[in-house]
C-alpha cells in the first residue's frame, strides 16, 4: 500500500467503510473519543457494529454513495476488505473527499504519542492486551487499540490520558509500515495472508522494513525462539537497539521452570540477563502465552513498571475474547472457542488444551478461513489437526474472497485421510457441523471451536445443545 501521512488537524467528520470490523470499530471509537464526528457503514450488523451503536455513532447497513451526501464527511476511511472499485469509495474520490486506509489514520494518532507497536503473525492481540492492562494497572492511562476485544476492559479501543499508546499492528497488507513505534514488539514472523505475500521471503522483507521504522532512541523486542525472527535478526543491523526473549538463558530475557496447572493456567520464572527476578502466574494457558507474557514484562520493565505490578496484573489477565475462551461446561463436557486460523495457531491452541486437560479427548470443529489460505496450507492444517481426537471441518469462510475453483474444505479432509486420522468429518453446511459434533461428543470431552469466521457463535450454540440432550457416558459409549 502507499505510505501517505494523514493530517487530522482540519478534519471534522470522518466516515468509516467497514465499521463493523474488529479494527475499524476500534478506530471509530477512538476517533469519537478524540472529538471527531464519526459515521460508518458495513454490509451486516454484527458484534462490533453493536459496540459502535452503543457509542452513539451513526451507521448504515450496506454501502452506498448516498452516505456521502447524508454525512458530508471531510475524510473517508476504508478497510482492506473494501474493493477499490466500490461505488461509495469511487464517488468519494471523484468528489474530492480525502480518502485513507485505517492504518494511515491510526498511525496519525499513534505517531504523536509514545507508541508501543505489537507486530507479528501470531500472538499480537494477546501481547498488546497484556501490555495495555499492565500499563493501566501501573496508572499510566495508556491509549489502546487492539484488533480483538479485550475481556478485561470490555472493548477493543480506549483513549487514555497518558502519553503512551499500545497498538496491535496489522501486517496482513503491509499497512504496519505506516507506524513509527518507540518500542516495537515482534512476536514471530511466519508466512500468512498469501493473497498479499507470495512467499515467506516477502513477509520477512516487510518485517525488516518495519524494524527500520523505529524512532530514534527506541527499542525492538523480539522473540528469539521464533525461526522467522531469527532470520530477521540476521538481517537487522548488528548495533540496532533490541532485546530478545525466549526459553531459558539463551536470550536477554528468559522463562524457566514452567509449570502447567490442571484445569488451566501456567506459571514460570522470569530471568533477566541470566538473573531471576521473580515468578509469574497466568490464568491463561499455553507456551505461547508464556512468551506473550514475557514480551509484556520487557515492555513494562522498559517503562519502569514495578515487577509486583506486572505480576499482579498478569495474574488477573483473563485473555482477549476468542483466544481459548471458555464458553461453558455441561455434563462434564467443556466448550472452548479460539480465533486460530493459521496452522501454527491451531497447533498452539491444541497443545495448550492438552496441557490443561492431558487425560481428556479433544473434539475440534474447525472452520477454514479464506480460499487462498486453505489452498496454500491444507496439508499443514491436516498435520496439526491430528493433535485432536475427533475433527469436524466446516465449509470455508470466504471473508472478502470470491470462491476459487476446486478449493474446498475437502482438501483438508483429503490430507487427514492420507494421515489416517481415526475420526474426521467434512461438512458442506454449518448446520450439519452442529449435528455432527453433537453425534460425536461424549461425556468428558473438550470441544474446541476454531476459526476466524462466523464459527464464533458455534460454541454458545453447542453449550445450549449439550444442555438439552442426554450425553452418553463414555463408559457406556465404549461398551465397558
Q: Mean pLDDT across all residues, rounded?
A: 92
- Ranges where pLDDT stays below 50 over 5 or more residues in a row are 475-480
Sheet with most strands: strand arrangement: 8-7-9-6-10-11-12-13-14-15
Number of helices: 16
Task: Report the count of strand segments.
Answer: 21
Cα separation of the termini: 61 Å
Q: Could you describe the largest sheet, including whether it forms a barrel?
A: 10 strands, mixed
Strand content: 15-25%
Shape: globular
Helix content range: 25-40%
* Structural class by SSE content: alpha/beta
Give the C-alpha Rg.
Answer: 23 Å
In summary, what is this structure?
The protein is built from 16 helices and 21 strands. With 480 residues, the chain is α/β, with parallel strands linked by helices. The relative contact order is 0.09.
Could you explain how this protein is built, in words?
- This protein has 480 residues and is an alpha/beta fold.
- 35% of the residues lie in helices and 24% in strands.
- It contains 16 helices and 21 strands.
- A ten-stranded mixed beta sheet has the order 8-7-9-6-10-11-12-13-14-15, with helices on both faces. A six-stranded mixed beta sheet has the order 16-17-21-18-19-20, with helices on both faces.
- Helix 6 crosses helix 10 and helix 12 runs parallel beside helix 13.
- It starts with 12 loop residues before the first strand and ends with a helix.
- The C terminus is likely disordered.
Amino acid at each position: 500500500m502507499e505510505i501517505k501521512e494523514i493530517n487530522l488537524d482540519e478534519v471534522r467528520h470522518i466516515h468509516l467503510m467497514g465499521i463493523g470490523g474488529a479494527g475499524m470499530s476500534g478506530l471509530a471509537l477512538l476517533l469519537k473519543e478524540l472529538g471527531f464526528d464519526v459515521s460508518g457503514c458495513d454490509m451486516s450488523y454484527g458484534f462490533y457494529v453493536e459496540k459502535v451503536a452503543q457509542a452513539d455513532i451513526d451507521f448504515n447497513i450496506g454501502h452506498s454513495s448516498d452516505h456521502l451526501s447524508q454525512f458530508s464527511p471531510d475524510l473517508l476511511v476504508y478497510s482492506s476488505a473494501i474493493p477499490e472499485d466500490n461505488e461509495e469509495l469511487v464517488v468519494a474520490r471523484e468528489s474530492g473527499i480525502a480518502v485513507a486506509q485505517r492504518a494511515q489514520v491510526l498511525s496519525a494518532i499513534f505517531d504523536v504519542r509514545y507508541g508501543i507497536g505489537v507486530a507479528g503473525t501470531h500472538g499480537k492481540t494477546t501481547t498488546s492486551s497484556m501490555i495495555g492492562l499492565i500499563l493501566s494497572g501501573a496508572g499510566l492511562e495508556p491509549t489502546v487499540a487492539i484488533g480483538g476485544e479485550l475481556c478485561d476492559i470490555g472493548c477493543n479501543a480506549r483513549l487514555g490520558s497518558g502519553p503512551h499508546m499500545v497498538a496491535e499492528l496489522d501486517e496482513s497488507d503491509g499497512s504496519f509500515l505506516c507506524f513509527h513505534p518507540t518500542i516495537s514488539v515482534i512476536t514471530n514472523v511466519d508466512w500468512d495472508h498469501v493473497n498479499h505475500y507470495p512467499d515467506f521471503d516477502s513477509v520477512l522483507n516487510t518485517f525488516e522494513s518495519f524494524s527500520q521504522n523505529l524512532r530514534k532512541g527506541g527499542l525492538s523486542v523480539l522473540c528469539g525462539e521464533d525461526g522467522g525472527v531469527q532470520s530477521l535478526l540476521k538481517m537487522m543491523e548488528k548495533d540496532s537497539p533490541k532485546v530478545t526473549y525466549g526459553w531459558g538463558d539463551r536470550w536477554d530475557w528468559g522463562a524457566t521452570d514452567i509449570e502447567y496447572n490442571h484445569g488451566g493456567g501456567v506459571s514460570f520464572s522470569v530471568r533477566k540477563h541470566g538473573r531471576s527476578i521473580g515468578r509469574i502466574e497466568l490464568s491463561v494457558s499455553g507456551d505461547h502465552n508464556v512468551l506473550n507474557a514475557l514480551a509484556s514484562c520487557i515492555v513494562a520493565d522498559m517503562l519502569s513498571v514495578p515487577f509486583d505490578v506486572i505480576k499482579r496484573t498478569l495474574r488477573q489477565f483473563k485473555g482477549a475474547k476468542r483466544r481459548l475462551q471458555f464458553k461453558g461446561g455441561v455434563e462434564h463436557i467443556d466448550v472452548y472457542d479460539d480465533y486460530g486460523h493459521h496452522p501454527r495457531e491451531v497447533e498452539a491452541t491444541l497443545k495448550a488444551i492438552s496441557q490443561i486437560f492431558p487425560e481428556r479427548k479433544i473434539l475440534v470443529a474447525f472452520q477454514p478461513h479464506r480460499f487462498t489460505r486453505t489452498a496454500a496450507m491444507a496439508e499443514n492444517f491436516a498435520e496439526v489437526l491430528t493433535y485432536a481426537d475427533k475433527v469436524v471441518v466446516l465449509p470455508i469462510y470466504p471473508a472478502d474472497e470470491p470462491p476459487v475453483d476446486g478449493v474446498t474444505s475437502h482438501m483438508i479432509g483429503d490430507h487427514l485421510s492420507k494421515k489416517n486420522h481415526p475420526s474426521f468429518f467434512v461438512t458442506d453446511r454449518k448446520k450439519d457441523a452442529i449435528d455432527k459434533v453433537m453425534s460425536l461428543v461424549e461425556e468428558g470431552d473438550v470441544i474446541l471451536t476454531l476459526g476466524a469466521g462466523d464459527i464464533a457463535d458455534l460454541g454458545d450454540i453447542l453449550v445450549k445443545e449439550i444442555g438439552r440432550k442426554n450425553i452418553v457416558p463414555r463408559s457406556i459409549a465404549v461398551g465397558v
